[in-house]
Design brief:
The complex is a heterodimer.
Chain A (H helix, E strand, L loop, with lengths): L5 E4 L2 H6 L5 E4 L5 H13 L2 E3 L17 E8 L4 H15 L9 H14 L7
Chain B lengths: L1 E8 L2 E4 L4 E3 L2 E4 L1 H8 L5 E9 L5 E10 L2 E5 L18 E7 L1 E6 L8 E4 L2 H4 L8 E9 L5 H21 L8 E6 L3 H7 L5 E9 L5 E5 L2 E2 L6 E3 L9 E5 L9 H5 L2 H9 L5 E10 L3 H18 L3 E5 L6 H13 L4 E8 L20 E6 L3 E4 L4 E4 L21 E4 L19
Parallel strand pairs in B: 1-8, 2-4, 6-23, 9-11, 13-18, 13-19, 19-20, 20-21
Antiparallel strand pairs in B: 1-12, 3-4, 5-11, 6-9, 6-10, 7-8, 14-15, 14-17, 16-18, 22-24
The chains are: A alpha+beta, B alpha/beta.
């Protein structure tokens, strides 16, 4: 059996949508920073980052949902992954997430986060 | 390739009986235009409105802005591979209804869409307060999924702009501008002593409402490639995305790419505009590596002496920007990058999510976190329902007097990363 890559997410929509594609760790109720720190733990254990953990071009305080894919296998520490996750955490720590979101916006944020990891250039 | 742009100055839009362009006025029969955009069964109805510079009007949530154009002579048609057939564009004669714009409105993903104010402080931050806007506000069918809604709105806007542009096909333009792009060998022979400057345009391609299409191809699944700069004037690149409004490249921006027009303006004078590369901004790290490797490879193959790189969006695309910059600089080729900043409301935070010492020539479009107050306006086209969650808005930002406090990232085109707007820093 081929190990499938891991998805760390605080987004229940992503956890449901990608259930057959990734080994899912749903971090329900975690902040984005909390998810990133869990990702960092895996990266330091030798898993490689496969997606970029900083979200792109969403609202001022950022999307409250975050989904990051890391490799199934854990080898020797990948320093590029370490550098990216550490930098992402540093960027995220500067952002305060104090926006109270209406329900419709919450679903939209979940959808955007979900879609970001849907497909890359590689088939 | 040689393309003549014929600008027909539009100074007014009138909704009326007969659709035509006459004496600088674009007359539109709403029934005829409705028939064009309602071919799509996902759209139940559409409401047209005209917003003019100086009027007390707010347009929100804005999805896209498109300039009406048509192919008057030569091969191909507007928005190839999407509206027109996929034939290669970028040559012949293109007529432009200069001064007019189609603006599509819809709450696809409410918080991601932006604001255009036609008067007041907000108007100073968007170029589309200076255009006469034909606004189309759509009602989608019930239960339409966000992906389909986005696509329907995207296509409706393009169809409308193409149809409206066609009204100017047989109208004599007020001015003509010729863009003549030389082949590699012609350029070297003609301008042996001028530096060969290339342009790398990064296209947002990260997923739902983060996509850009080239000849109808979703750019996230394309390798980095080359395009003739004149093709962009014919709508070869279209926006399918709604990243934060301030640094989203609308289709209008692509049709009027200022890096391309400025490089053409200096071509043969102090530089040789030698080529244009288009690349993507993906989420997967392997894609980022591959695309930036290909950017550098194409720069080397083309033998550019210098490269301008423009970005779209912020956050993880900053990584693509810096990867492109580093890899091109490593070839010994100078780069200038065009970006914008998220430096916090007081402007003291780090501006980009990624940085490198090789990025030593940077043009900024401004700080997207800058806070301004938009006055209450008399008329709203669309809905203000999303203003407090729109990118740049924040909770309780609507004041007692009806004014709205927002970061300028809520305003369409405020900090454009192709340098289309007027803000920068020295």
């Amino acid at each position: 059996m081929i190990d499938i890559d891991k998805l760390l997410t605080n987004n229940p929509m992503a956890a449901e949508r990608y259930v057959s594609r990734f080994d899912i760790n749903l971090l329900r109720g975690y902040s984005v920073l909390g998810v990133l720190k869990e990702v960092r733990n895996l990266v330091h254990q030798g898993n490689r980052l496969l997606t970029h953990p900083v979200t792109s071009g969403t609202a001022p305080n950022g999307n409250p949902f975050c989904s990051v894919v890391v490799s199934a296998e854990a080898g020797s520490t990948d320093f590029n992954s370490v550098s990216i996750i550490e930098n992402s955490i540093a960027v995220r720590e500067k952002i305060s997430m104090n926006l109270k979101l209406p329900d419709t916006a919450i679903e939209d944020f979940m959808l955007i986060d979900c879609d970001m990891i849907a497909k890359g250039g590689t088939i | 390739m040689k393309l003549t742009i014929g600008n027909i100055r539009i100074t007014n839009i009138v909704l009326g009986e007969q659709s035509k362009v006459e004496s600088g006025t674009l007359y539109v029969n709403p029934k005829e235009l409705e028939a064009v955009v309602l071919e799509d069964s996902n759209i139940v109805s559409v409401k047209f409105d005209v917003a003019k510079p100086g009027e007390s009007t707010r347009i929100t949530p804005v999805k896209d802005v498109i300039e009406p154009r048509t192919k008057a002579q030569g091969e191909g048609g507007m928005f190839p591979g999407v509206i027109a057939k996929v034939d290669t564009v970028g040559s012949g004669v293109t007529h432009v209804l200069k001064g007019a714009a189609v603006v599509t409105v819809g709450k696809i993903v409410g918080f991601q869409e932006g604001i255009i104010d036609m008067t007041g402080l907000g108007a100073e931050y968007t170029p589309f307060s200076k255009t006469i806007n034909l606004v189309m506000d759509f009602v989608p069918r019930d239960g339409l999924a966000a992906h389909d809604y986005e696509k329907s709105l995207r296509l409706a806007g393009l169809k409308a702009a193409s149809w409206l542009g066609g009204l100017g096909k047989n109208v004599k333009p007020d001015e003509e501008i010729v863009y003549d792009f030389s082949s590699v060998t012609e350029g070297i022979k003609k301008y042996p002593d001028l530096p060969r400057v290339g342009y790398v345009q990064m296209l947002q391609s990260q997923g739902l409402l983060h996509d850009t299409y080239v000849y109808g191809v979703d750019m996230k699944q394309s390798l980095t490639t080359m395009i003739c700069p004149t093709e962009v004037f014919d709508g070869a690149i279209i926006s399918g995305n709604c990243v934060s409004a301030c640094d989203k490249n609308t289709t209008y921006h692509h049709q009027n790419n200022p890096v391309v027009t400025d490089l053409f303006a200096r071509h043969g004078k102090d530089l040789n505009f030698a080529g244009m590369i288009i690349t993507n901004e993906n989420v997967y790290l392997a894609d980022k590596e591959r695309s930036s490797d290909w950017t550098a490879k194409l720069v080397a193959m083309m033998g550019f002496d210098g490269v301008i790189i423009s970005q779209e969006g912020f956050g993880n695309p900053d990584t693509d920007l810096i990867m492109n910059c580093k890899k091109v600089e490593a070839l010994g080729v100078d780069t200038v990058i065009i970006t914008d900043e998220y430096a916090g409301r007081d402007g003291t935070s780090q501006s980009l999510a990624d940085v490198d010492v090789s990025a030593n020539a940077v043009v900024t479009g401004g700080n997207a976190n800058q806070v301004i107050t938009l006055p209450k306006l008399d008329k709203v086209i669309g809905t203000q329902e999303y203003v407090d969650v729109i990118a740049g808005g924040f909770e309780n930002n609507v004041q007692a007097d009806g004014s709205i406090v927002v970061e300028i990232q809520a305003i369409i085109g405020a900090t454009n990363e192709m340098g289309f707007n007027k803000m920068s820093a020295r």
